[in-house]
């Protein structure tokens, strides 16, 4: 007769201890002005994650800059790469960038994503929409359609911008960098470089865009004079678009880009040249240029942006959260109307490049840790 093997009690106890230690190792307890935070690892194994969007069932859609879209389950398991993503220029700062759900996703399963699109002459920022079949094996896109592409396509791998935000009326705002070496084109209204554009979800131009009746301007343009806008979110009360953009060495800006506004780059800026440290342009203010709500000097290299409206952190409601690539932290920006009154720097103990920040359906904050290729969840420790 075979005897069933029995584990000694000490082995079982050790297994429990190890399981507890592993769970604790996945959750850090960090300080904040509102008490202890529990920062837990939700998923690992991502390659340069860039953007995060929550599906209605709680799963996450994540873009990887190398050109992959993934679905991340509630258990942290990564799907196979979603098929039919168009070719991307995955070099330098370029690649597969932002991803958001369409305003009618529940009915049509459409997602929208931005990417560095290779062309015969160079590369440009483009935006596509597609239907997502998240439950196929592997998950796939269908009806992929490019709805916008920059007219300008210079060579190089810098300053693609590329955040996507829908407003209440269903218009799509697209933020566009000036591609670094073409910065003077940020003020040219016949160029998409250094602009924020506003279109309908199918790519048509709204008739009330600010330059739609000007023969010397591209009708998609909403605002201009931007450098490299990598953060964008709608204000939860006013519905206004808020953005932030990278400045050189200094002058990272938080802006509220209104219709037709000139934001000054490269003539008006707090930034300075990288090598020489010389002043850029003619100063930091001018009457015809929209002043930033806030600026960081020295630069924090901002990335990702979200307003907090959840119930887990009542004291944080209405705060603006901005990731930092340079200082490896998450900035909690406290506002009074359109004025910044204070800032708290979170996750400094981790010190990794924060690429994106989003509020989850559970009221927690979720950030993409680009350095370690993981998703972190931030919730109260108690």
In short:
The protein is mainly beta.
Characterize the structure shown:
- The protein has helices at 9-25, 105-108; strands at residues 27-30, 37-43, 49-54, 60-64, 68-72, 96-101, 110-118, 123-133, 140-149, 164-166, 172-175, 195-199, 221-224, 229-234, 241-245, 252-255, 294-296, 302-307, 320-324, 329-336, 339-346, 354-359, 365-369, 374-380.
- The protein has 382 residues and is mostly beta strands.
- It has a domain at 28-57 and 158-380: TolB, C-terminal domain (Neuraminidase, 6 Propeller).
- Strands 1-2-24-23-22 form a 5-stranded antiparallel beta sheet. A 4-stranded antiparallel beta sheet has the order 6-7-8-9.
- Strand 20 (329-336) and strand 21 (339-346) form a beta hairpin.
- The protein is globular, with a radius of gyration of 22 Å.
- The chain starts with 8 loop residues before the first helix and ends with a strand.
- The model is unreliable at 1-25 (pLDDT under 50).
What are the defining features of this structure?
disordered N terminus; 382 residues; Neuraminidase; 24 strands; 4-stranded antiparallel sheet; mainly beta; 5-stranded antiparallel sheet; 2 helices
């Amino acid at each position: 007769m075979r005897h069933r093997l029995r584990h000694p009690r000490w082995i079982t106890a050790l297994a429990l201890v190890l399981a507890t230690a592993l769970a604790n190792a996945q959750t850090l307890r960090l300080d904040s002005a509102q008490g202890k935070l529990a920062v837990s690892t939700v998923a690992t194994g991502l390659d340069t994650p860039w953007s995060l969007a929550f599906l209605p069932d709680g799963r996450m859609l994540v873009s990887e800059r190398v050109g992959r879209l993934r679905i991340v389950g509630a258990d942290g398991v990564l799907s196979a790469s979603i098929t039919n993503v168009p070719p991307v220029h995955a070099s330098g700062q370029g690649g597969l960038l932002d991803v958001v759900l369409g305003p009618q996703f529940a009915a049509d399963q459409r997602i929208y994503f931005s990417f560095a699109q290779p062309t015969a002459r160079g590369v440009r920022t483009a935006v596509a929409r597609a239907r997502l079949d998240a439950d196929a094996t592997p998950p796939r896109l269908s009806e992929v359609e490019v709805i916008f592409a920059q007219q300008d396509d210079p060579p190089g791998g810098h300053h693609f911008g590329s955040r996507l935000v829908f407003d209440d009326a269903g218009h799509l705002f697209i933020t566009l960098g000036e591609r670094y070496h073409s910065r003077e084109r940020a003020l040219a209204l016949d160029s998409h470089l250094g602009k924020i554009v506003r279109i309908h979800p199918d790519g048509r131009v709204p008739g009330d865009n600010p330059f739609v009746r000007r023969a010397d301007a591209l009708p998609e343009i909403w605002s201009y004079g931007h450098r490299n806008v990598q953060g964008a979110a709608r204000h939860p009360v006013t519905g206004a678009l808020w953005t932030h953009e990278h400045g050189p060495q200094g002058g990272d800006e938080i802006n509220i880009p209104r219709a037709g506004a000139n934001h000054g780059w490269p003539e008006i800026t707090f930034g300075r040249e990288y090598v020489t440290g010389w002043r850029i342009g003619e100063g930091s203010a001018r009457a015809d240029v929209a002043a930033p709500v806030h600026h960081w000097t020295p630069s924090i290299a901002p990335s990702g942006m979200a307003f907090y409206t959840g119930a887990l952190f009542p004291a944080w409601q209405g705060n603006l959260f901005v990731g930092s690539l340079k200082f490896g932290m998450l900035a909690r920006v406290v506002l009074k109307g359109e004025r910044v009154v204070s800032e708290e720097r979170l996750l400094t103990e981790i010190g990794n490049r924060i690429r994106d920040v989003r509020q989850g359906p559970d009221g927690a904050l979720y950030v993409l840790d680009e350095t370690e290729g993981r998703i972190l969840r931030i919730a109260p420790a108690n």
